[in-house]
Amino acid sequence: MKKLTCILAVMLMLCLCTVAYAADPVTLDITALDYQTGKAILKLLQDTCRDTGRTVVVVTHNSAFTAIADRVIHVREGSVAAMELNEAPLSADVLEW
After folding, report:
1. pLDDT band for position 95 (50/70/90)?
2. Would you call 45 exposed, middle or buried from its count of C-beta atoms within 10 A (0-12, 13-18, 19+)?
3. Backbone phi and psi for residue 33, each to the nearest 5 degrees, phi listed first
4. What is the pLDDT of residues 2-56, one digit of tens each?
5. 15/69 Cα distance (integer angstroms)
6. Euclidean distance between the first and final Cα of the chain, in Å?
């Protein structure tokens, strides 16, 4: 089981590297992951954005994720309903949902 976990972790890291450094938009669905792995991925993406100046767009119905966002865009019926700037985003590793 330990070997399988290592292989899955390496595959996940390769996937995240592809997402973080892709020239074109990439979709990554983290909904099927366990809680701790999901948090680790969000933290990795957040750190990569800060380090590289890249943008990650998170589309969700879960308002808890707004706490880690630099900017929140609310969409209603296909149009931008509101935009908020988060002056003090939390680190993804302290996010609870």
Report:
1. confident
2. buried
3. -90, 155
4. 444 445 555 555 555 555 556 666 666 666 778 888 888 888 888 888 888 888 8
5. 22
6. 29
A 10 A CB-CB count for 38 gives 16
Residue 71 vs residue 20, higher pLDDT: 71
Backbone angles phi, psi at 76, to 5 degrees: -135, 125
> Cα Rg for the chain, rounded, in angstroms?
15
| Cα–Cα separations (whole angstroms), residue 58 to 1, 2, 94 | 32, 31, 17
Do 26 and 19 contact (CB within 8 A), yes or no?
A: yes
Residue with tokens 């595959």: 11
Please report which helix (H) or strand (E) contains residue 42, including its range: helix 35-52
| Helix, strand and coil percent figures for the chain, each rounded to 5 | 45, 15, 40
Residue 63 scores a pLDDT above 70: yes
Model pLDDT, residue 1: 44
